[in-house]
């Protein structure tokens, strides 16, 4: 219906039809359609600007007067505005008065007599001729034609006369502005008036509903005329609203069963079921309405079609599919109430065709009204829904015809009713081609069904409806399943759950999974790993949903059977997993969960510990697990495996105790738990997830086991600097070990097991060495020690040694325990030794200073300097007087002095310096161990408590160091207060041991185990040793002073003396005694004490065992007792040596034999007078 | 005025699109899956609508779509919990006011159920399955919510 606003035009007879008239008309027409007209919208109760308004100009004569038809048509059928166009110059009053005025008057009378008196007079003038303007204006007293027109016709406030200065070239649109403003105003007013009149009529008619004779159809036509009027001026919203009101009124009326205006609900005609739903032209609806013969069916379709069209025009095309779908569903339901009147599947056919034709119509409208496809996605998804609706009709038909099974997802669409037998007359048939084809062949049904589903899928995909798409994929898979395309169905079913899983749509996920499982069974494929994964996923979904609202048919029926389905699967799971070749690992399956206790218990009777765990089975049936394992991770890389075997896990919580045979203690992190069923491993790793707090980490504490096998590594007691070696102590604890294998490893260190030596002090045991160290038949509570040499590739500060021990006990010969220990060994010694040497003529004095390198106190029992037996050229004598053990503290080193007497010749081999020492804490630990052992022996108790008691005592000693000084002196150990022991027995032993320790004294000679540090010491070499002496020979008064004479020496008195330098080459390497060296001596300047006369310094040739004598004179400068000057002797390169080149001066050590000699110088008493001649006499 | 609405099912969906509770009130058991499908597919449309209306802040999303014999209405709470009602499709005009009233009742039921402080306790305790309280509220363990929802459905049926 292309409606336009009509505007009538009239002109004076002599103007009408002229060339100018035509020009004016076409000029007006060229400005149409009208832009931006303000119209009053009833719905919004405000003016709405209509952007484009179609306006048609018609001659007044062509407009029929009052409508012949009684049918209320659109208000636009009559002209809204009457226009009078006259052509008259403004000053041509004469013409106006004589002819025009009358014609206008007649027209005005005619127009105003009509119902909608909206009119406008357009006066067209020529542009004034500039040459005449001046003269004409003189006579303008009588006014202009325009003012005349205004006074003659403007009856109310509004000015309805417009003057237009017409320029033929029509270049300027502005000249039309005023006219069109008036023109729009006129139309707008006229429309408002006309509508309000019509609305009044409608309201009146609506009010008469209750009155007899009121006819809905008549009312409908009246009301619809409002809608078409609105539509004509592009006020679609208002138009739509009219239809909505009509529909609700219709429903209201029909609810009151006031059907007298309608024929039947439906009079099905040929082809009704397949007719295009949204086409208004398929039936003469309007005539049917006017004739009161329209059926409800047609009437509803008509309203729907009109509404949809208006929606499409409004640009709300996306609403159309939804409206249609709702209508088809709702009205279809109504039709089913009188199902018997139709042939079978007629209604389905109608819905099917309606949906499909609506989709086509939408596409057509989209091309027409929304070519830019702004709303395309929304329309597409709507179309998808419609196609889906059509598809579900096919499902209904398919199920009834037996093409499809009556089960979800097909049965979803099945209405909840029973079909009544059709009583329809034979002349109504199903006309839809698709439906007829379906009725005839199953193949066609599947083709159409799949085609339609795919169409819907495409629409959904374009509309972005992913989840709808999934549903259709599910349906397709179900169809494949039904038709026996098992492989395809299985793959679809197996892939679908992944789409539901992310949002925890367990219900749908589990449904898909159960379908996949069923399909798998149907296809009789072997239950492989893939099947297991599907089943695990299914169980996961089941558990996460906690069994509620499961959509699996066998589960939903409830009762005991509910779990039979599940149980069968779980059992099959085990069988399948046992049959598979490889282990299947599945992380974090929620069907089971493992919770470990915080603390492990010791096994007490054997090595290892127990860990209690609670396994929770969330399934409603038994889970056939084989083994439960928990892995704990320690501080280092060590990992401990706690496990126990089970037969099954009952639903709910099961408390289990896991055992780990490896003795380990400390804090451990729960690394993961595992539940094994056949080859299936359900793993629960405790990973660090970024989102979660650290507190989620579970920690298990394993208490230390004092009686477990223990391997300790420490520095070898005997340390020889050129041969590195470590000590290893294995204590069997409570175990009688049949075989123990031990392997050490440390970065860049090679251990030489083959050279391992069993320590003599400890037990004897059979052992083998090879790549590892193997010990056999080690009894209970036995300790063996080994020394294992090693070679270090690079010197390290701290050696990290990993010890791997595997052992079997005689009690449990089948169980091999593997202990992994890490021990750190510092190759540095707790003591350091420094040597200082002093040379004498044939004797060398060496001082060995032993100091503690750490903060530990070190007890030194003995030091020895051993001359190898082969050497007879030298003799070593210790100078030590004190016997007994010496304590070296970090601040106080101990010195040990030795004298070496050179018998003959140089010594090339090195001597050996031996220090026997131990750390104070070690010594005390030995003492405690001994004392506790003695205490226990005395009390005749089991030695088993010994380690606990010892640990107890040592712990309390560590807390307080006040006992140390006392111990150093006497050996008494005063143990500070001991912490409460765990048992009475231990406490008693500890008390007794404390008493014994208090009475303990150092033994006379060192006892127990001592460490030994063996240092090779080279005899120092000195090429020349110069022994200097300064002998006083005599004073002027006593020319000869004996060595021990008490001759007084006075200050200022010259004393003659001799400097003797004796050189010996005994400590040098050079055997050639005939060689001479050039030496230089220098007497120390003691300018405050001595005045030295003679050669204070000079060179001399030194030969072995020769003495160089220099006479000098000394004079004491003041009285007192002071030492004689020192003499420095240096080697010098002789001229011969220089020529030889590259030689260094020989090393010279000077021994000042007079260095301790002090001389007493007396003050000079009395006075001496000296007369000194002035020299003049002698000169003369 | 007696309500013309007949409630077939209601679904509560969390802001993360996890189903909280899907409750059906029709007898046929095997049709349950239908409402699960409806709830799931509605999410697509709710998303569309929510994007379209943008920040208008209107909770009521209106008729989402109609499928077979049900009309599906959507509602999104200010905290983005989605409520989907599946009403039996009837030929009568469904007044939005009535549907909104129903939605508000459902929202209140959810709101009062989620206010249970013990829910949060449980959610933090049960760390093995990480669920926020609004998922838990729909679990069968917490009966209160189901009870309230059922009551609303019953009231609607009898009125």
Automatic annotation (TrEMBL), chain A:
Segments forming domain TRAPPC10/Trs130 C-terminal: 1016-1162
Residues annotated as domain DUF7077: 708-812
Keyword Transport belongs to the record: yes
Keywords: Golgi apparatus, Transport
Keyword set includes Transport: yes
One BP term from GO: intra-Golgi vesicle-mediated transport
Domain TRAPPC10/Trs130 N-terminal: 18-316
Top-level taxonomic group: Eukaryota
Gene Ontology CC terms, in alphabetical order: cytosol; TRAPPII protein complex
InterPro entries, A to Z: DUF7077, TRAPPC10/Trs130, TRAPPC10/Trs130_C, TRAPPC10/Trs130_N
Location in the cell: Golgi apparatus
One protein family per Pfam: TRAPPC10_1st
Protein name from the UniProt record: Trafficking protein particle complex subunit 10
Automatic annotation (TrEMBL), chain B:
Gene3D superfamilies found in the cross-reference section: 3.30.450.70
GO biological process, one term: endoplasmic reticulum to Golgi vesicle-mediated transport
GO cellular component terms listed in the entry, alphabetical order: cytoplasm
Pfam families with a match to the protein in the record: Sedlin_N
CDD domains given in the database record: TRAPPC2L (cd14854)
Family recorded in the similarity comment: Belongs to the TRAPP small subunits family. Sedlin subfamily.
Protein name: Trafficking protein particle complex subunit 2-like protein
Source organism of this protein record: Ephemerocybe angulata
Source species taxonomy: Eukaryota, Fungi, Dikarya, Basidiomycota, Agaricomycotina
């Amino acid at each position: 219906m292309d409606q336009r606003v009509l505007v009538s035009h009239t002109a004076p007879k002599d103007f009408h039809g002229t060339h100018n008239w035509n020009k004016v008309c076409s000029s007006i027409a060229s400005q149409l359609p009208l832009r931006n007209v303000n119209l009053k919208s009833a719905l919004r109760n405000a003016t709405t600007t209509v952007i484009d308004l179609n306006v048609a100009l018609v001659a007044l004569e062509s407009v029929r007067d009052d409508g012949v038809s009684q049918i209320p048509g659109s208000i636009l059928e009559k002209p809204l505005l009457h226009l009078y166009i006259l052509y008259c110059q403004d000053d041509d009053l004469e013409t106006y008065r004589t002819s025009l005025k009358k014609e206008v008057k007649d027209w005005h009378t005619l127009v105003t007599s009509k119902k909608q008196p909206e009119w406008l007079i357009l006066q067209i003038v020529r542009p004034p001729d500039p040459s005449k303007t001046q003269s004409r204006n003189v006579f303008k007293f009588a006014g202009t034609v325009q003012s005349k027109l205004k006074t003659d016709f403007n009856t109310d406030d509004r000015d309805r006369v417009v003057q237009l200065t017409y320029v033929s070239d029509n270049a300027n649109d502005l000249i039309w502005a005023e006219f069109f403003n008036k023109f729009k105003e006129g139309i707008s007013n006229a429309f408002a008036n006309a509508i309000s009149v019509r609305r009044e009529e409608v309201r009146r008619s609506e009010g008469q509903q209750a009155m007899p004779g009121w006819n809905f159809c008549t009312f409908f036509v009246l009301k619809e005329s409002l809608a078409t009027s609105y539509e004509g001026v592009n006020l679609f919203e208002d138009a739509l609203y009219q239809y909505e009101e009509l529909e609700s009124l219709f429903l209201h009326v029909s609810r009151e069963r006031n059907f007298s205006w309608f024929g039947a609900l439906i009079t099905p005609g040929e082809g009704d079921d397949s007719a295009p739903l949204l086409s208004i032209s398929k039936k003469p609806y309007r005539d049917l309405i006017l004739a009161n013969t329209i059926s409800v069916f047609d009437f509803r379709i008509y309203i729907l079609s009109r509404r949809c069209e208006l929606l499409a025009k409004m640009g709300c095309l996306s609403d159309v599919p939804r409206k249609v779908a709702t209508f088809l569903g709702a009205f279809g339901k109504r039709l089913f109430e009188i199902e018997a009147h139709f042939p079978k599947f007629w209604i389905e056919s109608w819905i099917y065709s309606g949906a499909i034709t609506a989709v086509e119509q939408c596409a057509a409208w989209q091309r027409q009204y929304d070519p830019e496809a702004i709303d395309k996605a929304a329309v597409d998804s709507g179309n998808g829904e419609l196609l889906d609706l059509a598809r579900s009709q096919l499902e209904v038909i398919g199920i009834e015809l037996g093409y499809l099974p009556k089960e979800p997802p097909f049965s979803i669409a099945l209405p909840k009713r029973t079909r009544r037998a059709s009583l329809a007359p034979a002349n109504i048939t199903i006309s839809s081609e698709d439906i007829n084809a379906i009725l005839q062949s199953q193949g066609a049904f599947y083709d159409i069904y799949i085609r339609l589903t795919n169409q819907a899928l495409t629409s959904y995909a374009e509309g972005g409806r992913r989840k709808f798409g999934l549903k259709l994929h599910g349906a397709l898979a179900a169809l494949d399943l039904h038709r026996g395309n098992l492989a395809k169905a299985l793959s679809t079913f197996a892939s679908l759950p992944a789409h539901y899983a992310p949002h925890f749509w367990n219900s749908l996920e589990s449904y898909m999974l159960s379908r996949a499982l069923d399909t798998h069974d149907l296809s009789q494929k072997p239950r492989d790993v893939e099947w297991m994964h599907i089943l695990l996923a299914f169980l996961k979904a089941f558990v996460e949903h906690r069994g509620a609202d499961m959509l699996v048919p066998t589960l939903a029926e409830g009762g005991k059977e509910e779990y039979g389905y599940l149980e069968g699967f779980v059992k099959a799971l085990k069988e399948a997993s046992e049959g598979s070749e490889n282990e299947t690992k599945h992380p974090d399956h929620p069907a089971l969960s493992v919770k470990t206790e915080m603390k492990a218990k010791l096994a007490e009777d054997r090595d290892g510990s127990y860990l209690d765990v609670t396994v929770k089975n969330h399934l409603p049936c038994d889970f056939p697990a084989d083994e439960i394992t928990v892995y704990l991770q320690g501080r280092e890389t060590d990992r401990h495996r706690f496990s126990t075997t089970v037969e099954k896990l009952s639903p709910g919580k099961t408390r289990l105790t896991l055992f780990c045979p490896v003795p380990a203690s400390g804090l451990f992190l729960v690394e993961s738990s595992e539940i094994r069923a056949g080859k299936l491993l359900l793993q629960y790793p405790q990973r660090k997830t970024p989102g979660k707090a650290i507190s989620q980490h579970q920690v298990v504490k394993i208490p230390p086991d004092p009686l477990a096998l223990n391997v300790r590594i420490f520095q070898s007691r005997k340390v020889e600097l050129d041969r590195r070696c470590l000590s290893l102590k294995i204590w069997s604890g409570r175990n009688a070990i049949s075989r123990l294998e031990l392997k050490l490893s440390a970065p860049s260190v090679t251990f030489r097991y083959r050279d391992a030596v069993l320590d003599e002090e400890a037990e004897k045991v059979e052992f083998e060495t090879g790549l590892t160290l193997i010990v056999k038949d080690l009894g209970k509570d036995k300790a063996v020690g080994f020394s294992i040499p090693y070679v270090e590739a690079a010197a390290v500060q701290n050696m990290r040694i990993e010890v791997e021990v595997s052992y079997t006990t005689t009690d449990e010969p089948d169980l091999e325990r593997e202990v992994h220990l890490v021990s750190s060994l510092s190759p540095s010694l707790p003591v350091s030794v420094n040597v200082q040497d002093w040379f004498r003529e044939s004797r060398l004095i060496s001082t060995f200073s032993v100091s503690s390198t750490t903060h530990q106190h070190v007890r030194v029992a003995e030091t020895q300097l051993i001359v190898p037996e082969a050497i007879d050229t030298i003799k070593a004598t210790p100078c030590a007087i004190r016997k007994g053990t010496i304590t070296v503290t970090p601040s106080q080193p101990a010195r040990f002095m030795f004298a070496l007497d050179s018998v003959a010749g140089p010594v090339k081999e090195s001597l050996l310096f031996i220090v026997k020492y131990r750390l104070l804490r070690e010594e005390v630990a030995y003492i405690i161990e001994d004392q506790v052992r003695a205490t226990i022996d005395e009390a005749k108790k089991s030695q088993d408590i010994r380690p606990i008691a010892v640990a107890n005592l040592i712990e309390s000693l560590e807390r307080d160091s006040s006992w140390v000084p006392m111990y150093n002196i006497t050996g008494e150990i005063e143990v500070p207060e001991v912490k409460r022991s765990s048992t009475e027995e231990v406490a008693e032993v500890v008390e007794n041991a404390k008493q014994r320790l208090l009475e303990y004294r150092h033994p006379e000679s060192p006892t127990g185990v001592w460490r030994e540090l063996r240092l090779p010491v080279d005899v120092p070499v000195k090429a020349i040793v110069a022994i200097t002496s300064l002998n006083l020979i005599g004073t002027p008064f006593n020319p000869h002073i004996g060595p021990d004479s008490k001759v007084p020496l006075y200050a200022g008195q010259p004393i003659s003396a001799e400097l003797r330098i004796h050189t010996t080459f005994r400590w040098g390497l050079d055997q050639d005694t005939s060689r001479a060296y050039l030496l230089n001596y220098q007497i120390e300047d003691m300018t405050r004490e001595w005045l030295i006369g003679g050669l204070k310094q000079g060179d001399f040739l030194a030969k072995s065992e020769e003495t160089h004598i220099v006479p000098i004179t000394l004079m004491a400068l003041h009285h007192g007792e002071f030492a004689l000057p020192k003499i420095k002797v240096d080697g010098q390169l002789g001229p011969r040596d220089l020529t030889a080149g590259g030689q260094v001066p020989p090393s010279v050590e000077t021994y000042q034999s007079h260095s301790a000699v002090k001389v007493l110088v007396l003050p000079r008493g009395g006075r001496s007078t000296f007369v000194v001649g002035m020299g003049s006499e002698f000169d003369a | 005025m007696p309500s013309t609405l007949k409630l077939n099912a209601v679904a509560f969906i969390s802001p993360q699109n996890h189903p909280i509770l899907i409750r059906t009130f029709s007898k046929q058991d095997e049709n349950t899956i239908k409402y699960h499908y409806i709830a799931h597919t509605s999410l697509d449309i709710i998303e569309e609508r929510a994007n379209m209306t943008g920040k208008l802040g209107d909770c009521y999303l209106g008729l989402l779509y109609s499928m077979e014999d049900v009309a599906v209405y959507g509602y999104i709470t200010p905290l983005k919990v989605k409520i989907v009602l599946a009403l039996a499709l009837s030929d009568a005009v469904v007044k939005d006011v009535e549907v909104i009233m129903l939605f508000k009742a459902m929202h209140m039921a959810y709101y009062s159920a989620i206010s249970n402080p013990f829910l949060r306790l449980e959610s933090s305790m049960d760390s093995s399955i990480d669920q926020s309280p609004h998922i838990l509220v729909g679990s069968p363990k917490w009966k209160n919510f189901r009870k309230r929802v059922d009551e609303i459905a019953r009231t609607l049926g009898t009125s």
